[in-house]
Amino acid sequence: MIFRDNQSIYLQIAERICDEVLENKFPPGERIPSIREYAAQVEVNANTVVRSYEWLQQQDIIFNKRGIGYYVSPEGKQRIKTLRRERFFREELPVFFNRLYTLDITIEEIDAHYAQYLAENKIIK
After folding, report:
1. Backbone phi, psi, residue 65, to 5°
2. Is 86 exposed, middle or buried (0-12, 13-18, 19+ CB in 10 A)?
3. What contacts 8, CB < 8 A, 6 or more positions away?
4. Rounded Cα distance, 93 and 98, in Å
5. In angstroms, what CA-CA distances link 103 with 9, 22, 91, 99, 106?
6. pLDDT tens-digit map of 15-70
7. Which whole-number Å values give the CA distances from 7 to 3, 10, 45, 47, 87, in the listed order?
8. What is the rounded distance in angstroms from the CA atom of residue 78 to the CA atom of residue 114?
9. DSSP state of 26
C-alpha cells in the first residue's frame, strides 16, 4: 500500500478497510483479516493496524469477538457512509461552494452536469 504524507498511516489503513466494506469485500457480519494478516498485507507494523482497528471499533464499524477476531458490525456500512457524508459536508462542500461562487457557476449548471454524469454512467436515481 502506498501511503500519503498528509494523513496518519493508521487512518489511511482504516479508510482502506472502510472502502473494502463499502465494496462488499468485507460484508456486515463477516470476519476481517487478523491484525497480523492485515499488517503483512499492507506491509506495516502490527501496532499500526491495532490503532486502525481500535479507531474502527470506536466508530462502531467493526467489533471484536474476543479470541475469535474482528467482524464488520451489522450497521458498519451505513456508519461509514454517515461518517463520510459528515466529513464531506464539513470539509469538502465549503471549498466546492467557494469555487461555484468565484467561477459564477449556478446550481442549475451543476444540476445539469450531475444529470449528465448519472446518465453517462447508467446510474439510476
Report:
1. -95, 105
2. exposed
3. none
4. 8
5. 35, 34, 19, 6, 9
6. 999 999 999 999 999 999 999 999 999 999 999 999 999 999 999 999 999 999 99
7. 8, 9, 17, 17, 15
8. 23
9. S
- In the chain, the domains with their CATH numbers are 9-76 (1.10.10.10)
DSSP letter at 73? -
Cell numbers 491484525 correspond to what residue?
Answer: 35
Burial of 21 (0-12, 13-18, 19+ CB in 10 A): buried
Question: What cell was used for 49?
Answer: 493496524
Output the nine-digit C-alpha cell for 2. Answer: 502506498
The DSSP annotation for 90-104 comes to IIIHHHHHHHHHHTT
